Recover the amino acids of this structure.
């Protein structure tokens, strides 16, 4: 995954354009959003994350004004993400592209993914216990969280890399203060491409917004459909546009919705 993402970063050599210069249409574009660090501020305890109350009306209006051409693409498990979004009507693809909301057609059989993850659970449990790190088991991934213990970041990343290389069908994915072993056959890019064939999205131009390296697959997929990625924050990216902060992106989106074009 790291190499793939690195390759995608190198696909676009130009500097991202400031988001203030992006000109999108509610009638012609569709929107895919990451959750943590994009719609909701990142917090030390991932279980307490929340979308700011003053931003929720803009998301609800975007969903309505685009005729439902909005989806959340997140590394969180589906049910976890739906709880955070409630009562917003936005549908979700969770677990980095493995779990589809029933409103997006559902996920089908996940037994092979779960069998592959089961193979690497024991060594990850042992590592997490030894370092007092939080281990999160999701339907399509096992995540090691080290936001509260950044001194273990390198060891955690190495452990995830090791287990991913020993088991077939899995890959390592390193985000902000979290490293995961996930199913290799799906990512946010495959999710975006799958959704583009649905009636809500077909014929529209995709915009993918995210803040982390795990969103690069989504940026690349959106741009391969003639759309664009919007990277929030600093760091290398293949995205065409950049917002310096999450607040800047929220302000930009609220303005787009208020203008209603
Ligand atoms: Mg994020």
């Amino acid at each position: 995954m790291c190499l793939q993402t690195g390759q995608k970063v190198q696909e676009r050599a130009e500097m991202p354009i400031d988001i203030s210069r992006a000109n999108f249409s509610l009638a012609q574009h569709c929107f895919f959003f990451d959750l943590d660090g994009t719609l909701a501020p990142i917090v030390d305890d991932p279980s307490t994350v929340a979308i700011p109350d003053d931003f929720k009306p803009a998301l609800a209006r975007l969903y309505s004004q685009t005729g439902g051409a909005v989806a959340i693409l997140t590394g969180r498990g589906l049910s976890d993400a739906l709880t955070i979004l409630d009562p917003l009507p936005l549908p979700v693809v969770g677990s980095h592209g493995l779990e589809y909301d029933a409103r997006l057609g559902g996920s089908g059989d996940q037994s092979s993914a779960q069998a592959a993850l089961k193979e690497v659970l024991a060594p990850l449990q042992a590592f997490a216990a030894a370092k007092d790190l939080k281990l999160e088991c999701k339907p399509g991934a096992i995540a090691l969280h080290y936001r509260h213990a950044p001194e273990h970041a390198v060891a955690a990343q190495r452990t995830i890399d090791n287990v991913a290389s020993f088991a077939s069908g899995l890959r390592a994915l390193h985000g902000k203060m979290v490293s995961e072993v996930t199913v290799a056959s799906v990512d946010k890019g495959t999710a975006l491409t799958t959704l583009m064939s649905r009636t809500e999205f077909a014929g529209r131009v995709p915009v993918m917004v995210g803040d982390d390296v795990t969103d690069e697959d989504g940026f690349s997929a959106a741009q391969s459909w003639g759309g664009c990625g919007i990277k929030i924050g600093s760091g290398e990216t293949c995205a065409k546009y950049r917002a310096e902060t999450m607040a800047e992106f929220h302000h930009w989106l609220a303005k787009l919705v208020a203008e209603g074009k």
Observations:
- Residues 34, 36-38, 210-212 surround magnesium ion (CB under 6 Å).
